[in-house]
Amino acid sequence: MSPITYKDSGVDLELYEQSMQRLPKLMHRTFSPRVMKNDGGFAGLFQLDFNNALFSRKYEEPILVSGTDGVGTKLKVAQLLGRHDTVGIDLVAMCVNDILCCGAEPLFFLDYVAMSRDNPPLLEQIVAGISQGCIQGDCSLLGGETAIMPDLYNGDDYDLAGFCVGVVEKKQLISGKQIAPDDVVIGIQSSGFHSNGYSLIRKAVFEKAGLSVDDPVKELGQTVGEALMTPTIIYSNLTQKILRHYKVKHVVHGIGHITGGGLLENTERILPPNVDLVFERNSWEIPPMFNWVQQLGQIADEEMAHIFNMGIGLTLMVNPYYANTILEIAQSLGLKAWTIGRAQAGSGKSRWK
């Protein structure tokens, strides 16, 4: 019986090393002066001197804020389309947008890529997207891990997970506890489905309607694949511009990242027990891709609102006096924004008017 090697089992260490050599340039382009280079080391290094001039602002009582997430079955669409350079943006967005809800300034990001086999060009595409997401999110891609697991994944299948850390001044922490009756709810546009509901989308589009990723969708002016692979918006520039504009004032009382569970569930989770949010139907533009998927799958209105963001990717619960200025800040960044609801005395519920 001849001896076997690691390569025989599906892991090629020489090819793996080729993959690793492609990544440092994608990381370095995201580095801020706070990153201490440690190429080839076992961990990433980040300076935590929050009163150093390297920081965009000083912190008296810094609170670290962290979040982790994945991309979900949107990866299956990437596989069908053969395009992998945008799902990394989604990965960063799903993590960074969560920590923004606490008022945090993003600091750094780590990724985890699990693959069935070594594939340097594929890995480079994936990490290029993560790198671009970090630039959009104003955070440093500090490190990551690539795991080759031929017995858990098949062919070119892969999975992604991400982890980010940010910082917020303790007295400026946004938790939702400050939400009060008469606060205004501002909704910020999504770019589409973002990275939620893709199991339902794939069933409606590919299984029920029998479409392929290359089929044109006349009402969208795109192919199926182009519509479904639209990257998630990262809202770092928006939240940081608003919070820096008002500095220490408690203008923003709550922020909700609208993901799985839709508008009502994701805003209700941060409400005080004595306040309700009441939303106005038809108070914002619903992108046509939602109606397209709904018609293909014959999905009920209630199910759509429960699963998808329906065109609102982020909500801000704000003092009504500052609402117009915040709308103007969003619009100055090229983001559509609407007043979509108000807070009133209640029992901690989000509901439709």
Automatic annotation (TrEMBL):
Transmembrane portions of the chain: none
Domain of life, per lineage: Bacteria
Chain ranges of the PurM-like N-terminal domain: 63-168
Primary location recorded for the protein, binned into one broad class: cytoplasm
Residue ranges constituting the PurM-like C-terminal domain according to the UniProt record: 181-348
Record-stated family: Belongs to the AIR synthase family.
This protein's name: Phosphoribosylformylglycinamidine cyclo-ligase
Gene (name only): purM
